[in-house]
């Protein structure tokens, strides 16, 4: 029997899954336990069959891959069945460092725009990508940004994002590395017109060994647009 989704709230999760290379069953267990409505993925499987492996992962956690592969590159966006998706896109970012090619997954779910980031390890490239994204892809209303920022709070990427968005977990637990986390580099940020509950960073054996990051989970209260 299919469970009717809770229309009063939207559970949101961000998770760098390390290409599902460490322990795929544990990543699946972590996601299924959290039961998100929207899952922003960083480092989804890549390569010729990466899209297929991400599709299978989405199926195994009871979701659908709305943005998967192509221009999204190092990101993907999964949505629970029963949630309304009214638009989605994979945005390719320019490779300014000569290193990993990056992209952004964007979708509108139940009237809220979600943007999934996996920012560069190179500071100048992070800044350039984020500057463009904030202008063209991150509205200041009805918006949630999910991602691996590759820097701790107080860095320039965090400062740019929190100038227009609200960090849902400003005193949150660290997320990297997963076994003994010391750095908080994974984040969920929302526009000021949205309301969020208490965020959490899952713990326990599956979260320690599934990936090299731990995820962040938060519930959004769904409000009328203003």
Automatic annotation (TrEMBL):
Q: Kindly list the GO molecular function terms attached to this UniProt entry.
A: endonuclease activity; hydrolase activity
User: Where in the sequence is the signal peptide annotated?
Assistant: none
One Pfam family it belongs to? Exo_endo_phos
Q: What is this protein called?
A: Endonuclease/exonuclease/phosphatase family metal-dependent hydrolase
InterPro entries given in the database record: Endo/exonu/phosph_ase_sf (IPR036691), Endo/exonuclease/phosphatase (IPR005135)
**Keyword entries, A-Z:** Endonuclease, Hydrolase, Nuclease
Q: Which domain of life is it from?
A: Bacteria
The keyword Repressor appears for this protein: no
> In what residue span(s) does the Endonuclease/exonuclease/phosphatase domain sit?
13-213
